[in-house]
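User: Sequence recovery, please. Input:
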């Protein structure tokens, strides 16, 4: 038929919702195909070669293979026994530097300035000064707290600190170090916790100096929870209360390349809680919150 391409079957991946119903659905008009549009959802991806154009049954056209110039071919380099990720090399330009993780280094989103902006936003929304901040070992967040609320009571997460100690401990001493550490953070009183910490330092200072240095870095901020009612200790000594929320949110977004707007990310986070997929529990000893708010938090001097 003049002006009409050979009959081609519409592929299933297009779906019925991508174009309106037409009298002859399986014929592609060659003139002004304004109804035909392809979205990222209809594009196939082939590894790291990018998007491949859709092909149709009966289509004799072949997509030509993409040839790469010699100077753009992927190359792998190896230095100091480590194989680096493949990178594209261009004549006249130095090879691209690969980013390596350095202990203690934080991305821009974890810097003191970024956290300070977050805390300033909370203060601007009328958040009053908290009684306690429970944090991990992030130096950027810790510095932002000092700038926003000087002399704030801070509790370092005991679980994060234990993971730090495990990374510095030798394999044969790992279980023994964990037991000695638990005697510090699960002691019945603050005095017993400090006694256990001194014993830990004396025992491991010679054989595991890195472990002892990491423990001393936490200081008394590992023991701040002892200044609160005993019923609340379980909830206050770790950041577990928020880790569940963070973990579920990361699980949902790790397969999503990006969000169209900031509001779409907030809607997803809210929907997880509102739908009951994430259940937020009360902290232990919630009945003592009012009494804690009416008193000053002071950790006994060593």
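Assistant: Recovered sequence (302 residues):
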């Amino acid at each position: 038929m003049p002006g009409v391409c050979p009959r081609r079957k519409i592929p299933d991946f297009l779906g019925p919702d991508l174009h309106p119903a037409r009298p002859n659905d399986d014929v592609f008009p060659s003139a002004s195909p304004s109804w035909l549009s392809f979205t990222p959802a209809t594009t196939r991806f082939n590894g790291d070669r990018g998007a491949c154009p859709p092909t149709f049954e009966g289509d004799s056209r072949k997509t030509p293979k993409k040839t790469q110039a010699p100077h753009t071919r992927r190359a792998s380099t190896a230095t100091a026994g480590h194989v680096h990720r493949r990178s594209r090399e261009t004549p006249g330009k130095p090879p691209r530097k690969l980013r390596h993780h350095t202990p203690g280094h934080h991305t821009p989103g974890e810097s003191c300035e970024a956290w300070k902006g977050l805390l300033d936003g909370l203060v601007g929304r009328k958040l009053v000064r908290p009684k306690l901040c429970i944090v991990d070992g992030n130096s950027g967040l810790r510095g932002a707290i000092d700038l926003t609320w000087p002399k704030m009571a801070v509790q370092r997460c005991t679980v994060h600190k234990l993971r730090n100690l495990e990374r510095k401990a030798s394999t044969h001493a790992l279980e023994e170090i964990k037991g000695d550490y638990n005697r510090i953070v699960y002691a019945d009183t603050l005095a017993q916790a400090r006694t256990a910490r001194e014993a830990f330092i004396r025992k491991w200072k010679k054989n595991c100096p890195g472990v002892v240095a990491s423990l001393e870095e936490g200081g008394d901020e590992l023991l701040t929870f002892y200044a609160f009612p005993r019923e609340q200790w379980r909830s206050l000594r770790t950041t577990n209360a928020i880790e569940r929320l963070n973990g579920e949110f990361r699980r949902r977004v790790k397969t999503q390349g990006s969000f169209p707007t900031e509001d779409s990310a907030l809607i997803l986070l809210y929907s997880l809680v509102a739908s009951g997929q994430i259940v937020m529990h009360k902290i232990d000893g919630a009945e003592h919150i009012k009494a804690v708010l009416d008193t000053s938090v002071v950790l006994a001097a060593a």
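Residues 17-63, 72-89, 97-105 have pLDDT under 50 and may be disordered.
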